[in-house]
Design brief:
The chain has two domains: 10-114, Orthogonal Bundle (Arc Repressor Mutant, subunit A), CATH 1.10.10; 119-249, Beta-Lactamase, CATH 3.30.450. β4 (159-166) and β5 (169-175) form a beta hairpin. The longest helix is centred in the middle third of the chain and has 22 residues, at 93-114. By secondary structure, it is α+β, with helices and mostly antiparallel strands. The two termini are 37 Å apart. It has seven helices and eight strands; from the N terminus they run αβββαααααββαβββ. The model has no long low-confidence stretch (mean pLDDT 89). The strands form two sheets. The chain has a five-stranded antiparallel β-sheet. The chain is globular and about 60 Å long. α2 crosses α3 (93-114). It has helices spanning 15-21, 59-74, 93-114, 117-124, 132-141, 145-155, 194-199; strands at residues 24-29, 39-44, 47-53, 159-166, 169-175, 208-211, 225-233, 238-245. Bound molecules: zinc ion.
């Protein structure tokens, strides 16, 4: 699709035009109260409709949702549609895993469509690391900071992880391939992390050093530090922390997985 649309720069990525070319009509509708999904692909015969809730106020979130549904369409995902894009708590384990696999594929499609590796990778090769490159990507590619930061850790060769926190608990972690330590979902956020302060309303909008033990399960960090840049994700009641291990600490902070 990127080739077909001659995408050579961020401003060429017009996701709604791409969806139209793929045969999908986009409909913005009021949120359905029994449905927590923000977007939905509906196919009838060879007609496809992408329904997007008007709750998605942030244009970046809307673009990502449309790109995700377009992914289901273009990748030919044939799961029963109701099961896509929702938790599926009553489904069998196998069905859940299959749905999860399709969600992962649709998210990967959306990330590459909206932030193509060929255009974004060089912006991710920076040192020192902070959220600033992700902010620039979010601005130029019209996506949310969270989506841009995930893409950043996916593509950078620096030792980075993006940690998503709500109510004092790690919910998910995205790591670069060079980030070796493990941070498990469910981990409680420590007092000496920046995320702890941000959850309590502090404002530190810059990367700063914290003890490695603030994030990593290590008995003796030998004084090693980790760089953390944390920001509130207000619309989700969450905090996102970008962690970075400097070269000089890489040897002492490799683990175990
Ligand atoms: Zn989906």
């Amino acid at each position: 699709m990127l080739r077909e649309f001659g995408v050579e720069a961020a401003e060429h990525i017009e996701v709604e035009a791409m969806a139209a070319r793929a045969g999908a009509v986009i409909v913005t509708s009021p949120a359905d109260p029994i449905d927590s999904a923000t977007a939905r692909l509906v196919r009838v015969g060879d007609r496809a409709t992408i329904r997007v809730t008007e709750r998605l106020r942030h244009p970046g979130a809307r673009r990502f949702s449309i790109a995700h549904e377009l992914g289901h369409l273009v990748l030919g995902h044939e799961e029963p549609l109701r099961r896509l894009c929702e938790g599926g708590t009553a489904e069998s384990r196998l069905a859940r895993e299959s749905a999860h696999q399709l969600e992962t594929e649709a998210n990967a499609f959306a990330a590459e469509l909206l932030m193509p590796e060929a255009l974004v990778r060089r912006r991710c090769e920076v040192s020192p690391v902070s959220l600033e490159p992700s902010r620039a990507i979010a601005h130029d590619f019209r996506v949310s900071l969270l989506a841009a930061a995930r893409r950043f850790v996916e593509l950078t060769s620096e030792r980075c992880a993006l940690v998503f926190v709500t109510r004092g608990t790690v919910r998910w972690v995205a790591r670069s391939t060079t980030f070796r330590p493990c941070i498990e979902p469910g981990r409680r956020v420590e007092r000496d992390s920046v995320a702890w302060d941000i959850e309590r309303g502090a404002v530190h909008d810059e990367a700063q050093e914290v003890p490695a033990s603030a994030w990593l399960e290590i008995s003796d960090d030998g004084g090693a530090e980790i760089v953390e840049h944390a920001v509130p994700v207000t619309e989700m009641g969450a905090v996102a922390s970008l962690l970075w291990i400097r070269e000089k600490h890489a040897a002492s902070l490799r683990c175990y997985d």
